[in-house]
Amino acid sequence: xxxxxxxxxxxxxxxxxxxxxxxxxxxxxxxxxxxxxxxxxxxxxxxxxxxxxxxxxxxxxxxxxxxxxxxxxxxxxxxxxxxxxxxxxxxxxxxxxxxxxxxxxxxxxxxxxxxxxxxxxxxxxxxxxxxxxxxxxxxxxxxxxxxxxxxxxxxxxxxxxxxxxxxxxxxxxxxxxxxxxxxxxxxxxxxxxxxxxxxxxxxxxxxxxxxxxxxxxxxxxxxxxxxxxxxxxxxxxxxxxxxxxxxxxxxxxxxxxxxxxxxxxxxxxxxxxxxxxxxxxxxxxxxxxxxxxxxxxxxxxxxxxxxxxxxxxxxxxxxxxxxxxxxxxxxxxxxxxxxxxxxxxxxxxxxxxxxxxxxxxxxxxxxxxxxxxxxxxxxxxxxxxxxxxxxxxxxxxxxxxxxxxxx
Length: 407
Fold this sequence. Notes:
The protein is mainly beta.
């Protein structure tokens, strides 16, 4: 049950980690009271996502002719699709014969097959979410259909532009089943070309990137350039080569906002954070407030304190009452995956693969040293960091913040 100590604010979605509220004084022994919800940015602006781009130099630093040569402008972007390893691909798309897919054709497919949905981006080995966006694009299966009737294909390899240096190539893969047979109640992998209602910017992997809704960010390759259909059954993900689980999915996880080291003790305290609704669903968010003697060290996995911890329920932020103030002007909530077609309201909250805020009113605290932890509990009743505390499947530690209440 390893602890993670992040002090960087990777996501600008709240009004800070601590809030004074004019609520009745409450005991820290009681469950969290209903705190007033702050005004939050539901969508992370494109330029506020935490950036983990690869490459030297990173592709989004290219300018002018270098961008054109790299096919990273809307006019020059092309996607090749070929077969190898015994795969039967009747129609390949290549630069050589001029048949490579361009953005105009992709967006034309989007007129009849467009997918829009809210997704949180989270890296396998970073302690905080990178951002939440409204993504739009075309399901990968619709692009694969351009290749005709496939046979002898088991897996799809794909990668993006990385300076034409083989050592810098970053690639990922999916099974053909994952791409073609997504159930109607699930989001398909797709090629994204819009973010928050605008063309996908270069910094976020534009003009086109892969988006795999249920997966960590390494599956959602930026600057997509090439798809290879193969009969090879093995994953070829760059992350697999680095001793990671190439099929790891987005985890249900709670994150704590930063706290000041010293806090006035004359007002009730509200602690805030965010939670991702991963593949296993979300039942609740809990916090554990613990008084310490001085600056306590981290708790080991086998520390007896874990067995006696008293976890109290947090309040998950309600969905926005009016989505027209959240979504781009030309997007109706009824058009977004996970929303009811008639009412325009979310079918579940938080939305799957999305994230939202949570808060806990811990009341008035006497002077002293404290630490607070937060965790998510999924629909299997697994409490974070379970069921997958193995680092190879992604960081999911219980975060802790330490602070002092002043007299």
